[in-house]
Amino acid sequence: MNTESTPEHFLRAWVDVDLGALLRNARAAARQSQRPLIPMVKADAYGLGAIPVARALEAVDPLAFGVSSIAEGTELREAGIQRPIIVFTPTLPVDLPRMRAAGLTPTLDDEAGIRAWDALGGGAWHLAIDTGMHRAGALWDEVESLAEVLRTSPPAGVFTHFHSAELGDGSLERQEERFRVALGRLPARPALVHSDNSAAITRRSPSPWDCVRPGVFLYGVDTGPLAAIHPEQVARFRARIVEIHTIADGESVSYDATFHAHGERRIATLACGYADGYRRHSSNVGRALVNGHEVPVAGIVTMDMLMLDVTDAPCKVGDAATLMGSDDGATLTVDAVAARAGVSPYELLTGLRQRVERRYLGAPAV
Ligand SMILES: *Cc1c(COP(=O)(O)O)cnc(C)c1O
């Protein structure tokens, strides 16, 4: 798994995105929930590229796509995505004309916003209900105050968001109960009721509502011990070995000299650093795969380069090292790499920087 089929310009660091695995994860989520999907492709599809990801997911016939801003939705529209695109972060009324012009679906939760949307000519929107996350949405026990405006401007959908579905601490059940109470107080049941994120999808089957909103599961992140289904890895973060040095006993590696050679060591330099999204917190604790061998990060991760101790891993300049994902049968999962980097898997994926080119593999025939 070295240089063979890698195009010339992938000489530095890049991310292989396995669209076949993405699609299999999406199908697994649909099978488990027995519901159509609203795939969350916000934050550039969790760093993997919203346009190619959305195009690949067309194959599962999603109900809509979920994004977090007008700009993200506009990017998908300009790429030719025709399905509904729902913007899940609250939009201020001043931005609603842009939302409408872009052909996007807002999520609203107060009378001023609903009336402003209506005054623009209306169109589909979803009502956000806060059942305990306390981030966005109308409070579950205050939705009655919206009854009048909901009668004149009924939403196409209504949803809530779970804060700890992966914990199994009873909070999902409490939030669901509040959601049911809120639904019962709406003047009419909207056509699309939805609540489940990846963690909820993976732990219950079928989903109790009309559609589900998977995010991180699609991109290969396991949702923990309660999950009945587990995703395939989708992203493989790789970087090229650009130099190899043999250093003498007692010599140090990188800034602040935090790594010291015990005996002679072979140190490989990768053309990848924290400005590529490989976290500095992985200094001296990160692991990489080199030609099937797992090797440690040596010293502090710098902006543009990092070093590996490859004393026990045969390799040469020009070989690719794998920082995340599978290589020759071994795998560094997103979760494992994130744990060593001291971040959540969400942060690790969305922190992959633009200068790391994305390469798309296994593009399904649509
Ligand atoms: C991000 C998000 C999701 C998806 O969450 P995952 O944990 O990535 O599955 C679902 N719903 C809303 C409202 C979100 O903001």
Mean pLDDT: 95
What is the approximate shape? elongated
Gyration radius from CA atoms, angstroms: 23 Å
Helix-strand pattern, N to C?
EHHHEHEHEHEEHEHEHEEEEEEEEEHHE
**Structural class, please?**
alpha/beta
> Helical proportion?
25-40%
Strand content: 15-25%
Count of strand segments:
18
Spans of 5+ residues with little confidence (pLDDT < 50)? none
Ions, cofactors, ligands: which are bound? pyridoxal-5'-phosphate
Roughly how many Å apart are the termini?
28 Å
Biggest sheet overview:
9 strands, mixed
Helix segment count? 11
Structure description:
With about 375 residues, the chain is an alpha/beta fold. About 25% of the residues lie in helices and about 20% in strands. The chain has eleven helices and 18 strands. The protein has helices at about 20-35, 40-45, 50-55, 70-80, 95-100, 110-120, 145-150, 170-185, 200-205, 335-340, 345-350; strands at about 15-20, 65, 85, 105-110, 125-130, 140, 155-160, 190-195, 235-245, 250-255, 260, 265-270, 285-290, 295, 305-310, 320-325, 330, 355-360. Strands 1, 9, 12, 13, 14, 15, 16, 17 and 18 form a nine-stranded mixed sheet that branches. Strand 2, helix 4 (about 70-80) and strand 3 (about 85) form a beta-alpha-beta unit. Helix 1 (about 20-35) packs across helix 3 (about 50-55). It is elongated, with a radius of gyration of 23 Å. The protein starts with 12 loop residues before the first strand and ends in a 5-residue tail after the last strand. The site of pyridoxal-5'-phosphate (PLP) has 11 residues, from helix 9.
